[in-house]
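Hi L., both proteins are below.
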Amino acid sequence: MCRVTVNAHGPLRIEGDFTIVDPEGRPLDLKGRTSIALCRCGSSRNKPFCDGTHNTVNFRSIVEGERSSE
């Protein structure tokens, strides 16, 4: 199972069993990691991964969306 957490003012956190692929469908080397953070601010120097730059560029994004009734 894979879990994705949308962090307010920060990255997408992905945990569990997942594969990240490039635009051609080739898997990226995650070096065995079972959790990663994906950049949402667009300023990371290690895209698509988060490097914490969202803190220095004052990225703001409130988590809003329809909630599940589960």
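That was the first. Here is the second:
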Amino acid sequence: MTRSESPWHAGERAVHDRIGERALADRITIAADVPDAAAEFLEQQTIVFVSALVGTDVWLTPLTGEPGFVEAVDPRQIEVASRPPVGDPLAGVLRSPARVGMLAIEPATRRRMRLNGRATPTATGIRVALDQVYSNCSRFIQKRSPGGAAPPPDASAPVTTDLLTASQQRWVETADTFVIGTADRDGNADASHRGGSPGFVHVRDPAHLRFPDYAGNHMYMTLGNLEVQPSAGFLFVDWFTGATLQVTGMATVDFDVDRAAAEFPGAARVIDVVVRSVVETPGRLPAAWSEPEYPPFNPPSA
């Protein structure tokens, strides 16, 4: 069965059954069209996050531009007039046809939208033929007001390491937001937001991190992908300097609710990550965002 015939692949179905939410998932429909209101939302954005497989590793990258750099050219296709700089893990992949997951998130309004499909390169970026288009609730999104203008392309050279440095570990441990990218065994990619109070991500050592997963929207696209393809990409943002931290690694999910809640209050599961590679890039995104306003229902950090 293809994605056009059903929104759920075998990994997602396995997770629905393990958690006991197949009936709830069956009530969900996922469109491939961009509604007019969603098209307007996309055209207002200055950042979108894109995930894709690079060999056997999933990576995430931010694409930036002035409002209008993302455009719905018709209900089932969008164009993004931006591409990753030289040295970015996805720079080469996005110059050829690729299956991508995309996340548009607007911290100031706490709105987000996910778009998955097949990208082809254009003269200025990528065009994506859409397979899946859907929005998620604003849960765990920290409210921030936009910072300055987008930096020029190739403004700063990325630095690649095999493990998290000491400063990167502190960065991850104090983060309140990250984006996670995953893909199924056919390479269909997805990008999703995760948020919580600072400290909701635990760094065990330079090669291992873990974070909670909470009850959500019954889709379990991230967990379903990890069921069949354990590679995952992560993007952490320094909202004050515009630096980005891209991480790829192998992720496993612990579905034991009691163990999860003992470490992360309110969590239903825990995801463990073995780090494979790290890319830090100074000045990648617009900087000087406002201090965050945390939702009152953010779970406490352990």
